[in-house]
Amino acid sequence: QVPLVESGGGLVQPGGSLRLSCVASGLDLMHYALGWFRQAPGKERAATPCISSSEYSKYYADSVKGRFTISRDFAKNTVYLQMNNLKPEDTAVYFCAAGILNPQLAYTDYLQTNPYTYWGQGTQVTVSS
User: Fold this and answer.
1) N or C, which end of the chain has less CB nearby within 10 Å?
2) Is residue 7 very low, low, confident or very high in pLDDT (cuts 50, 70, 90)?
3) Could you tell me the pLDDT band of residue 72, with boundaries at 50, 70 and 90?
């Protein structure tokens, strides 16, 4: 079974909103850093992470700060990405990821993909008029 399953992607006009969901099967979210990564068409690697290392500690890339919000619902074992004021540049396949918290890693390590051992299949977000 796939540990992480995303949903909520689709086609939206610029300025619109979308909420992505990621169900983390069999994972205790309390012990994991969670992130959303995206890979735009033609790009070689996922970029622009949104990270939640705890329920209250979060990081947003400059390109999405103020527009995107990452959150957790422990009861539903789900992580969300609320995306507001979407722009065409946000068009990408979005992946949720989980990596067990490791005290040997610096905070900045979680901004890259290496610490994440569980990945969803991705969901397409297209922002176009």
Assistant:
1) N
2) very high
3) confident
121 residue type, one letter? Q
Q: With 70 as the cut, is the pLDDT of residue 48 above it?
A: no
- Listed as own residue / partner, the contacts of 30-33 with beta carbons closer than 8 Å and 24 or more positions apart are 30/74, 31/100, 31/101, 32/98, 32/99, 32/100, 32/101, 32/118, 33/98, 33/99, 33/100, 33/101, 33/110, 33/115, 33/116
Q: What residues pair up with 34 in beta bridges, in sequence order?
A: 52, 98
Rounded CA-CA distance 62/81 in Å is: 16
